[in-house]
Amino acid sequence: MVVSENAQRVLEKRYLVKDENGNPVETVDELFHRVAHAIAQSDKRYAPDADLGETEEIFYRMMTELEFLPNSPTLMNAGRPLGQLSACFVLPVEDSMEDIFEAIKQAALIHKSGGGTGFSFSRLRPKGSTVNSTGGVASGPISFMKVFNMATEAVKQGGTRRGANMGILRVDHPDILEFIDCKANNNEINNFNISVGLTEAFMNAVEQNADYDLIEPHTKQKVGSLHARTVFERIVDAAWRNGEPGIIFLDRLNRDNIVPSQGEIESTNPCGEQPLLPYESCNLGSINLTKMLKQTDGRYEFDWDKLKQTVKNAVHFLDNVIDANRYPLEKIDEVTKQTRKIGLGIMGWADSLLLMGIPYNTEEAIALGEKVMRFISEQGRQESAELAKTRGAFPLFEQSILPKEVPQRNATITTIAPTGTLSIIAGCSSGVEPIFGYVFIRNIMDGTEMIEVNPILKAELEKRGLYSEALMKCIAKEGTIAHIEELPEDLRRVFVSAHDIHPEDHIRMQAAFQRATDNAVSKTVNFPNSATREDVAQVYRLAFQLGCKGVTIYRDGSRSEQVLNIGKVKKDGETAAQETARITPRPRPDTVIGVTERVKIGCGNLYITVNYDDQGICEVFTNTGKAGGCPSQSEATARLASVALRSGIDVKSIVDQLKGIRCPSTIRQPGLKCTSCPDAIAKTIERVYREQVELGRWPSSPEMQSRPMPVPGKTEQPEPPVQRRWHGDGSEGLHFCPECGAKLEHEGGCVMCRQCGFSKCG
């Protein structure tokens, strides 16, 4: 099999079996043999004489030809001692101290095994309620969310996947206003995605400009009311501010609840696409649609026969996963096998449209999307019925809402999940998302530029004789080809990126896939930074009207903007002249250039990013590696340095204050070339400053000019070798990857890095 260089790096870093020193001890080919063999063994449960070799070969070929890939835990753990193959779980949170901390313990075990967790906190009594057993006062759902968040922070998951959570609160819970704003600070509850559970009664009240009732969870009695449109606007404002909370439509989730006798669906997994009952797990996989195309008379179209066979094999694979899985809790094993839910989805949708010459933001694309997904769902149902003939229907089938004349092996068949890391391995676009960017320029180590171009765009440009490095740099700078007038109009019309597409067209595409999907569709509606709150509100209303089950939005750059109050608070007796005389930092520019260095410190690696524009260094931030460290102190140092630099404080003064600070964990280890995190930050700032002065981009400070750079063998030790990644940022403040420094993309209801495979959701 052939995978890209980037896919090889991701597989080596995150998926291949490693020895005690962290070195891979299996090849990519061996990984797929390991997974295919482990999953094929489930056939023996139902047919002792089954040809396991044939099944294994089918599974192996499907994966190595990159036609289908299971979710990451299956690739990581199948055929290994851990054996935990599910991506995510939903756990109940009942309203007692014993049950709350039992849920925390269960979540920790799940995170340790590599899974993510979803919770509804709607059963917890509101803040200020009387606790009958103690006579005390309840602290409310948000306070306990913070406890869950801290527990997640403490679990490291063996270095393979990060802990991720979804927190949901019903809109009619009395603490809903506090919940909406609980992530206004981007550093609060940062191991959670949060969503407000909206009801149809609430949405109708919004349209009618009416009040709606707040309900006490225990008594189910009305305890107050709020103006629906005011609450809706509060949700919109928070999402506009930093992308959270998202929204889910609870009544819609439960309308499609296959086994309502087992209770209400209250929560989803951390990316919002898999509604689950308490203790259920999601077992996911995705078909690469670019491999389902064929050429007829020089044009691409879907090969429906190949897609049908791939769906059949994929459903067989995912049903086997349920039996091969070693669940982290016995209760999860029991409940999951009662419904045997699977979630077969897709990736490569945007790439497929490009190959067919169909613009993403057209009615033709939307109609084709629904047709493709409906075909997958129908063929999946047929295969589930075939499996039921030999394996039996899922145990709760008779209690289900499914037609009783056709027994089904699986309660649900289809889900569209985020496929960030999987799509890197498969070499295709993620999920049903449009292309985020077509060209990226990476300058590594010595500054040598490496241009990475979407292969479909590159092939089309080469075919037309238009490809050049100069053009690629122009596209990378623009972030889109929409305004590059030297390119043909038909090319610009087809090769649209996420920010060329109107938010309503994002929702229309999501709704098209939702109409043919059992569970839900994970997708992010990307807004430009200039989007208004009303733009967000309109998308929410449209999502409700078109039948979506939830919405996640992100306004470009919104999480990078910090409100600085310096110079804005007037003390008693202070004159206006005294107030205006204060130093006020200049705003963070929309476009910056930066460098990320990896520096060895006493407790692992420290990643230091220094961003600058033509006026000088304007921003410093840090991330610690998986080994730990003091992230809060490093972040505080970087933030204060950023404020000082944008306030015009001389670089020398900042460097002098930080350089030479000593930390016991660093100075006790021989061979390290810095004495602490602040010392490493200072040296990186100094290096970047010197390099730009030497290039003639900034005037030199006399104080800095008089200070010699460290020279090996002289007064200071030589600077440590660092891994450096330069990046141009024309993206209005996107986050950068904490592991490699590349720009992160907001897609599929999550945040991921297409360079190294990092994902916020695990």
Summarize the structure.
The chain has 762 residues and is α+β, with helices and mostly antiparallel strands. It contains 26 helices and 27 strands.
Write up what this structure looks like:
The protein has 762 residues and is an alpha+beta fold. It folds into four domains: 12-84 and 283-426, Anaerobic Ribonucleotide-triphosphate Reductase Large Chain (Alpha-Beta Barrel); 88-268, Alpha-Beta Barrel (Anaerobic Ribonucleotide-triphosphate Reductase Large Chain), CATH 3.20.70; 450-496, no CATH class; 592-730. 38% of the residues lie in helices and 17% in strands. It has 26 helices and 27 strands. The chain has an eight-stranded mixed beta sheet. Strands 19-18-25-22-23-24 form a six-stranded antiparallel beta sheet. A three-stranded mixed beta sheet has the order 1-14-17, with helices on both faces. α5 (97-113) packs parallel to α6 (141-154) and α8 crosses α9. The radius of gyration is 27 Å and the shape is globular. It starts with a helix and ends in a 10-residue tail after the last strand.
- Rg is 27 Å
Report the strand count: 27
Strand content: 15-25%
**What's the multimeric state?**
single chain
CATH architecture of the largest domain: Alpha-Beta Barrel
Find the CATH topology of the largest domain.
Anaerobic Ribonucleotide-triphosphate Reductase Large Chain
With helices defined by DSSP (H or I, 4 residues minimum), what is the helix count? 26
N-to-C span:
26 Å
Largest sheet: 8 strands, mixed
Query: How many independent structural domains?
Result: 4
